[in-house]
């Protein structure tokens, strides 16, 4: 991938060479695939689309070697993944609520969140919604509870120490909201890209000391990203979205649901992790 970010190209900018283009997508039509094992590399061509694959996939190809040294692919398959278990039979309906992107720290983010908590706790809504939310067994907050902090050019230019007051105030606000929520339902909170946690995947749980009010309840849980849990016999596996966004940036797979489906087909939750996801990265999470 010619547009792939490279530290060597970044160094070349210091020597007044051609700078790298600023872009959020790194694919172009002349990208090609290379199959690599512990002995050699070979360029793939034929019945395989480079625009729907990313680095880090385990794949088996069927075909033949052409005179120019390229391998013509007639067919291919990915790693085998067991069929999911049949969902257990339940005597009553149960629900798990998945939410993310609170973005606390913005003035317009407080009222919708308070309204959501009022709906979950049964303070607003009709009898039908009250009954449905009474069957809620878990709330999973999938990252980015804290909003992205817009850089202040004046502060970055004249202050030597970054101000953390905005993050502290946002965490205090989040703790206040969570303390209302954990009274009525179990809550699992995952870290995200903008939350105060380590940036590299897998992200470790937010520290309980950030939630002095909520952490007093046994229904409050800080968990990792990616997160794997079994709730009433049903297995949940998910991330805060960095892997999906990264797959879309390094391929022509634009639909997030298609990218999620690809992680199941490939048998790998974050195939690009060592290559580009949260550069640089030293840990790899494989499903």
From TrEMBL:
<dbReference type="InterPro" id="IPR024826">
    <property type="entry name" value="DNA_pol_delta/II_ssu"/>
</dbReference>
<dbReference type="GO" id="GO:0043625">
    <property type="term" value="C:delta DNA polymerase complex"/>
</dbReference>
<dbReference type="InterPro" id="IPR007185">
    <property type="entry name" value="DNA_pol_a/d/e_bsu"/>
</dbReference>
<feature type="domain" description="DNA polymerase alpha/delta/epsilon subunit B">
    <location>
        <begin position="96"/>
        <end position="277"/>
    </location>
</feature>
<dbReference type="InterPro" id="IPR040663">
    <property type="entry name" value="DNA_pol_D_N"/>
</dbReference>
<dbReference type="GO" id="GO:0003677">
    <property type="term" value="F:DNA binding"/>
</dbReference>
<protein>
    <recommendedName>
        <fullName>DNA polymerase delta subunit 2</fullName>
    </recommendedName>
</protein>
<dbReference type="Pfam" id="PF04042">
    <property type="entry name" value="DNA_pol_E_B"/>
</dbReference>
<comment type="similarity">
    <text>Belongs to the DNA polymerase delta/II small subunit family.</text>
</comment>
<dbReference type="Pfam" id="PF18018">
    <property type="entry name" value="DNA_pol_D_N"/>
</dbReference>
<keyword id="KW-0235">DNA replication</keyword>
<dbReference type="GO" id="GO:0006271">
    <property type="term" value="P:DNA strand elongation involved in DNA replication"/>
</dbReference>
<feature type="domain" description="DNA polymerase delta subunit OB-fold">
    <location>
        <begin position="1"/>
        <end position="76"/>
    </location>
</feature>
């Amino acid at each position: 991938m010619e547009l792939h970010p490279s530290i060597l190209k970044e160094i070349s900018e210091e020597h007044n060479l051609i700078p790298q283009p600023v872009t959020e997508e790194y694919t172009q039509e002349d990208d090609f695939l290379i199959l690599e094992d512990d002995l050699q590399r070979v360029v793939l061509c034929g019945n395989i689309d480079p625009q729907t694959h990313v680095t880090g996939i385990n794949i088996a190809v069927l075909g033949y070697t052409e005179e120019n040294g390229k391998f013509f692919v007639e067919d291919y398959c990915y790693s085998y993944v067991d069929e999911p278990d049949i969902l257990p039979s339940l005597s009553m309906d149960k629900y798990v609520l998945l939410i993310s992107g609170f973005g606390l720290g913005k003035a317009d983010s407080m009222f919708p969140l308070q309204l959501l908590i009022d709906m979950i706790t049964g303070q607003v809504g009709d009898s039908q919604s009250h009954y449905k939310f009474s069957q809620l067994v878990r709330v999973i907050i999938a990252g980015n509870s804290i909003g992205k902090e817009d850089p202040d050019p004046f502060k970055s230019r004249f202050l030597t120490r970054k101000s953390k007051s905005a993050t502290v105030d946002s965490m205090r606000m989040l703790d206040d909201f969570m303390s209302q929520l954990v009274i009525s339902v179990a809550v699992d909170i995952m870290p995200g890209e903008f939350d105060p946690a380590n940036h590299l995947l897998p992200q470790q749980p937010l520290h309980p000391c950030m939630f002095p009010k909520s952490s007093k309840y046994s229904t409050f849980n800080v968990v990792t990203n990616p997160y794997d849990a079994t709730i009433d016999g049903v297995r949940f596996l998910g991330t805060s979205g960095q892997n999906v966004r990264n797959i879309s940036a390094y391929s022509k797979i634009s639909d997030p649901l298609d990218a999620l489906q690809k992680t199941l087909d490939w048998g790998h939750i974050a195939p690009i992790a060592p290559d580009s996801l949260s550069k640089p990265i030293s840990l790899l999470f494989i499903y």
